[in-house]
Amino acid sequence: MREFWRTIEQERCTVVLVFHDLQAADGGAAVETLNLSHVRWLISGGRAAPPLHHRAYQRRGVVFKQGYGLTESA
Q: For residue 31, which of 65, 11, 59 has the smallest C-alpha distance?
């Protein structure tokens, strides 16, 4: 989990797709200490993210989008 966020920080990713289970793994603690100023959008997938996650990213100035996809329909 921490390695994932460290990579996002080191590579200065601007758009991040993250699955709900990954966000929930450490209760969002890793996100609180990272420099995410370069992230323009964070898109959540896998299932609906709780409002707690929306607020945590918004406090950091990251635009949080709830993604939706149905791979079986392709």
A: 59
